[in-house]
Design a protein that fits this description.
alpha+beta; Aminopeptidase; 2 domains; seven-stranded mixed β-sheet; 10 helices; 14 strands; disordered C terminus
């Protein structure tokens, strides 16, 4: 049985070394995401051989793809044995199409694969988010033009001097939205709070937009791999027209020019969120799958 435990800040260096080696594109594979969501999803980690392994250890335990220098052949038997020792079905989540191809090749006929559309990541060209060129981005440009006309605005990088204003904005957003989906928003707010609490230690980056001196939108995220930045959270007052596309564009323009891609994560099956993410015309819709043993395929999420 592997020894899993909740991640701590002292794990950041070695965990990021493993993640850096793997260069995964999925949003699950950043230390900040693992740390922030660990309480909500009972996500635990272990350093096994030369790999970081994460495991959601709630009612439906599930492993992420190991990150590090070990092959599937070296690590997968240990995960299968851990599931058996713990007395729960074997399941993996957040597995990309490339990884499913490798698993099928290495372990033919052993697993079943289930597409998980609600977990697909939306990945964009950074230059598209900055330039918003062409007819496909006309509505975004119109909203931004309206924001500029209607507001005396400014953009700032998040630092120690304005972090508390982002926290206050998030609390106000939470008051407006919590009644619509209390459980999901509670979990998200717990993760955001953990991110704010360790913002600089985690290596988070972010930006905020002011209107007449007041913060009306913010965004935060972190480096995912050598060419991709991952945006974890973006909050704005919905009544301020254009605030969302404005923070999206300004943050990309001012902070993300060194990255080829921006991963804006999944839509969790929310129709409105899916429409919004598709409206930015992702260049990659990163497919993800769950993996189960054939004789355990009836295991439900």
């Amino acid at each position: 049985m592997l020894e899993f435990r909740y991640p701590e800040m002292s794990d950041k260096q070695w965990a990021e070394e493993m993640l850096e080696h793997s260069q995964y594109m999925g949003s699950e594979y950043s230390f900040g995401n693992i740390f922030m969501w660990s309480r909500s999803y009972k996500t635990k980690i272990t350093k096994h051989k030369n790999s970081l392994i994460t495991k959601s250890s709630g009612e439906k335990p599930s492993y992420c793809c190991p990150a590090g220098s070990d092959s599937f052949e070296e690590i997968l038997p240990d995960l299968l044995e851990d599931a058996k020792s713990c007395g729960h079905p074997f399941k993996m989540h957040g597995i990309t199409r490339e990884c499913t191809v490798e698993l099928k090749k290495l372990f033919p006929g052993r697993f079943k694969f289930r597409e998980e559309r609600n977990t697909f990541d939306y990945i964009y060209l950074t230059e598209d988010l900055i330039n918003l060129s062409g007819r496909k981005f006309r509505d975004k440009r119109n909203h931004i033009s309206a924001f500029k006309r209607e507001n005396k605005w400014s953009f700032e990088v998040i630092d120690a001097g304005n972090l508390e204003e982002c926290i206050a904005l998030n609390e106000a957003w939470d008051e407006q939205k919590r009644a619509s989906d209390p459980d999901s928003i509670y979990k998200e707010q717990d993760a955001i709070a953990r991110g704010f609490d360790k913002f600089f230690e985690l290596g988070m980056e972010g930006g905020l937009i002011r209107s007449s001196g007041q913060a009306v939108a913010f965004t935060i995220g972190e480096r995912l791999n050598i060419n991709t930045f991952c945006v974890h959270y973006e909050k704005a007052f919905a009544e301020v027209r254009g605030a969302y596309p404005m923070i999206n564009r300004e943050f990309a323009d001012n902070c993300l020019r060194d990255y080829l891609y921006v991963n804006r994560e999944e839509d969790v099956g929310d129709p409105g969120l899916r429409k919004a993410k598709l409206s930015y015309n992702p260049v990659i819709l990163l497919e993800k799958y769950s993996v189960l043993l054939k004789d355990e395929f009836s295991y439900k999420l």
